[in-house]
Amino acid sequence: MKSVLVFGAIAIVLTAGSRLLAHHSFAAQYDATKVIRLVGTLTKIEWTNPHTYFYVDVKDDSGRVVQWGLEGASPSSLSRRGFKRGDLKIGDTIIVEGYRAKDGSNLADARRVTLPDGRIISGASTGDGGPQ
Amino acid sequence: MTTRFFYIAGMTALAATLLPLSDRLRAQERSLTVVDVPSSRSTPRTAGGRPDLSGYWKGTRDTKPGGNIGKDLPGWKLPLTPAGEAALQHNLTATVDPEALCIIGGIPRHNASGLPFEIVQGANKIAFLYWYSYFRLIPIDPNRKHADDPDPSFFGEELGRWEGDTLVIDSIGFKDEKVWIDENANPHSDALHVVERWTRPDADHIHVEALIEDPKFYTTPFTYSRTWVLGQPDEELQEYSCSENNVNRDHLGFGPGPIRPDGTRGYSDPAPLPPPVPRK
């Protein structure tokens, strides 16, 4: 997970103050002390309700490939922010910052997603009480 | 690297401020809650002269704490009986949020939700349509009476009637299991009785005054009031299949997690995310 330089424009989607589809409490599933950043290769996309899921292969520090599931807001919420299903394809690299599940599984809440085109999108379900 | 992070953060903030005002306003319009503003448009009325409550209704940012049925009580302190306190502790420590398991939230929880809803009003019935593709369909008939022993349901047995320009919905016959009365895991029993009084004071606002009685779990009746704002003409509910891919079912813990001092669910001091990673 090496940091790299940025080229091209960065856009931010305005979501301040919006409340989105809060299907569950953030705090019932995720640990707000366990921040995680993952850079992974997309292996599966689930553009579904109540949440979107992005499954990625991530190389850990020893070079081993580990699969992670990343939970995003609902399709309608992401679409409202300009993040469309067609923005991703299998094999793309995405960067996600978020929080790990409390149960220790390889599942994280994707609060921020950097798309292949460089756009940075909030993946948060705002009404879930989680960090914005 | 730190310098680059600051550069990226600065560029990101700059990009936001450089967006045209119209785009920023549109972003607000499309969000699910809005800033409340006065309206000069009068209440629309049906052919029969009643207020027409139809519309796509969005919460305002003045509704605090969101998701808490004790919003209007001092310190948001609900008047729990000992049985109600026991039920709350059970909900907190032994139950997963029913809404997260795709079980209907019911009333009054839906009135405390942050999600918009839609009303379609007919002459003798009114439909409340909710995200999650749930609905309640209420007869408007002053002559209908509650059943002696209604089958328990999440929305209850609901009877509507007009009192002047106020639509009154009187509901009994609620479930007493797999229900939270709000997002904070507060309980209600099968003795719940809810009287909602809905008004549309102008074209752009709808308001409810709800009286909540539950002698098993609450020592006294209490009220919950709230105002919503009319959405844009082309805004409407969309399909939302809660059970399509509910991965959460296998990962959720009991209860809502911590409740903050402001009465909302969530951590008070979450660790911040790191700055965005510059991309190659």
Primary descriptors:
heterodimer; A: 132 residues; mainly beta; five-stranded mixed barrel; 2 helices; 6 strands; 40% strand; globular; disordered N terminus; B: 280 residues; alpha+beta; ten-stranded mixed beta sheet; 3 helices; 10 strands; 14% helix
Verbal overview:
The complex is a heterodimer of chains A (132) and B (280). Helix content of chain A is 8%, strand content 40%. Mean pLDDT of chain A is 85; it is low at 1-20. Chain A has helices at residues 26-29, 75-80; strands at 30-46, 52-59, 65-72, 93-101, 107-114, 120-122. Chain A is mainly beta. Chain A is globular and about 35 Å long. Chain A has a five-stranded mixed barrel with strand order 1-2-3-5-4. The longest helix of chain A is centred in the middle third of the chain and has 6 residues, at 75-80. Chain A is built from two helices and six strands. Chain B has 280 residues and is an alpha+beta fold. Chain B is built from three helices and ten strands, in the order ααββαββββββββ. The two termini of chain B are 14 Å apart. At the A-B interface, α1, β1, β4 and β5 of A face α1 and α2 of B.
Low-confidence stretches of chain A: 1-20
The total count of strands of chain B amounts to 10
The greatest interface here is: A-B, 62 and 66 residues
User: Into which percentage range does the β-strand content of chain B fall?
Assistant: 15-25%
Q: In whole angstroms, how far apart are the ends of chain A?
A: 24 Å
